[in-house]
Amino acid sequence: MEKNKINIVVTDDHKLFRKGICALLSDFDFINEIDEAGDGAELIDLIQQKAEIPDAVLLDINMPVLDGLETTRHLKARYPDLRIIIISMEEDVQLVSHLVDEGVDGYLLKNADPEELELALRMIMRNEFYFSSSLTQAFLRSSNTQKKSNVSQVDAQLFTERERQVLELICKELTAVEIAEELSLSARTVEGYKRSLLAKSQARNVAGLVIFAIKNYLVVV
After folding, report:
1. Do domains 6-132 and 147-215 have the same CATH topology?
2. Dist CA 42 CA 36 (whole Å)
3. Does the domain spanning 6-132 belong to CATH 3.40.50.2300?
């Protein structure tokens, strides 16, 4: 594989949509090999037969044989470093939150622009997270509905002041390098804060950390 290029599998039971996504991906200069699968079971078989595990998977939720949720569970158990972006029309915050808990790295709506797809892929391959901005607003609306006050339910002492600063910048989708520049820290130090935030929040990944922060009013987004 050419340096800095990634291999990806597009998994969706709608062939025309799948072919369209593959055509878009072929225009991205950082994409190497593109494979296709019609459902989760086909995807798993394809990966098992390959000599090299793909770097990322675009995965639909509603598919026959094996849906996106069960497929995610299987893949993350066997290939924890595999990056998974769910691509769906569903904007159900409970579903998104559940998928994040299962380990997905991004969530993209099917009506997204090609530029957003490219951005999402670039971000997850930098170990960042991505989900559509409309989902952030949906989480905020859900939190406002469920909470009786604008007070966080998290112990005020859970995070240090510096951790809160890093958390706020993570939620603004800044990379570790960008956060380091903003706070005059090294990127390695920022990664250390990120690991601490994940451990204290018990979030599985950065996407889960962001949802945790939004739900508990730890940041303003």
Report:
1. no
2. 9
3. yes
1-to-5, 55, 118, 153 alpha-carbon distances in Å: 7, 11, 19, 47
Q: How is domain 147-215 classified at the CATH fold level?
A: Arc Repressor Mutant, subunit A (1.10.10)
Q: Where are the domains of the chain?
A: 6-132, 147-215
- Chunked into runs of 10 residues, the chain (221 residues) has average pLDDT values of 81 95 96 96 95 95 91 94 92 83 89 92 86 70 54 70 91 86 94 93 84 76 56
